[in-house]
Design a protein that fits this description.
138 residues, mainly beta
Length: 138
């Protein structure tokens, strides 16, 4: 079981998730070439992240063999390439990305913050194209 503590600091949301059994902070931030990824929940059945994509950057063109994702734009305008479509998602908009669906997130209109909830297979990523020379199956 987990509980959350939410505080607002000059319009920036700060999340701190603490394990009730151990009392330790579960939040983990990973810095990426396109911005950062904050993992705020990681259990056996789901993972919660906040992706912060810097203006002019984009994630890999990728798909997942098993992992399933749902995303919601928290801030900014996201360009989402999903299958053969390109969608523009604004604050509050959502999208579902089933396994094996080729997709890419792009920040073409300023910085973007995206809430992502997925199944827990964090290493299930097949990169088809990457602006930062990361490629292949991880």
């Amino acid at each position: 079981m987990y509980y959350s503590s939410l505080s607002s600091v000059s319009t920036k949301l700060v999340f701190s998730f603490v394990s009730l059994s151990t009392g330790t902070d579960m939040t983990k931030t990973l810095f990426k070439p396109w911005g950062s990824e904050e993992i705020w929940a990681h259990t056996e059945t789901y993972v919660g992240k906040i992706l912060k994509i810097q203006n002019g950057h984009r994630l890999s063109l990728q798909y997942h063999k098993v992992k399933e994702e749902s995303v919601r734009v928290l801030k900014g305008t996201l360009t989402l390439v999903i299958g053969n479509e390109t969608r523009t998602l604004k604050q509050g908009d959502t999208a579902h990305i089933p396994p094996t669906t080729i997709h890419r997130m792009e920040a073409n209109h300023g910085d973007v913050h995206v809430l992502e909830v997925s199944t827990p297979e964090l290493d299930d990523i097949v990169r088809l194209h990457d602006d930062y020379d990361r490629a292949g199956l991880l």
